[in-house]
Design brief:
Blueprint: E1 8-13, E2 16-23, H1 26-41, E3 51-59, H2 62-80, E4 82-93, E5 98-108, E6 122-123, E7 129-133, E8 136-144
Antiparallel strand pairs: 1-2, 2-8, 3-5, 4-5, 6-8, 7-8
């Protein structure tokens, strides 16, 4: 029996970058997509869990929820310099409408301590995918950089 342990991988797309994230549940795939996005910005191993930020997102679809959630994480980074290391789902629903509340643990980005990788501007709907394949969930999302 093969255990599926990969959480996410980076997709190289001409002019942009994407993440393919996996999970045993839809919620786990969303968490892994957020962590994958943070890994595009910096090496998250160097992030300390000094603060916690609550994030809420909602939409009429899972794809819309994913974009709203990731763009809220980007907003927190762009506006407050907050970068996460760990994401905990507090509430998650996709019937009848999609909603999630998460707690993100991390700290303020410090250019002297944290490696600067890509400037992620936004999650997009371009080729977005949120689907269950057999017994796992898979997400693909492209970011403007």
């Amino acid at each position: 029996m093969v255990l599926f342990s990969m959480k996410f991988e980076v997709m190289d797309i001409s002019g942009d970058v994407g993440i393919r994230a996996y999970g045993k549940s839809c919620e786990e795939a969303f968490v892994n997509a957020g962590i994958g996005m943070y890994s595009l910005i910096t090496d998250i191993e160097g992030i300390d869990e000094k603060q916690a930020v609550d994030i809420e997102a909602k939409s009429d679809s899972l794809e819309g929820l994913l974009v709203s959630y990731l763009n809220e994480l980007i907003f927190q980074f762009d506006t407050y310099g907050f970068i996460g290391k760990r994401i905990e789902i507090i509430a998650f629903s996709h019937q009848p409408s999609a909603f999630m509340k998460v707690k993100v643990y991390g700290e303020e980005f410090d250019a002297d301590r944290h490696e600067r990788r890509l400037l992620v501007k936004a999650a997009t709907y371009h080729n977005i995918k949120v689907e269950k394949i057999n017994d796992k969930w898979e997400i693909e999302v492209v970011f403007d950089i």
